[in-house]
Input
Amino acid sequence: MNYYSEKIVANPKWSLAGIYADQGKPATSTKQRDSFNHMIEDCYDSKIDMILTKSISMFARNTVDFLRIIRELKERQIRIVFEKENIDIMDSADKLLITILSSHELEESQILSENNRWGIARKFEQSIVQVNYMKFMGYTKDVNGNYSSRRSRDCPKDI
Output
């Protein structure tokens, strides 16, 4: 976020409309990405005329959503620049490349998801439970990764 703030402020032709970041949210769907949706609304309300983003994968991995949003923003003359791929959607030569790369990002996302599910299933087969939280459903995880009930420590005995 600092990188883009500094980059935009350093260019006298640009003004910062905001930093829109959905940290920790997957880009496979736009439904749960509140900041992304707010940015698109700001584009539709003519508050933004250009979007700088790191890469296609940071923008969206769902090819249908991606292409729909790209088309709608381009019709409104809103530029999107993908720095990693060095693509500007206003350059008509990049249209085919954008379609190919967005499809690739969707496939990559699906492969990563399948790999994660496969890894979790193999751990379950070995009786290894993996939970991403220090506190989960009344249990705590100690420094050794073992779970224990919080009831004995945290709850009154009459519950």
Summary: Residues 2-128 form a domain with the Rossmann fold fold (CATH 3.40.50.1390).
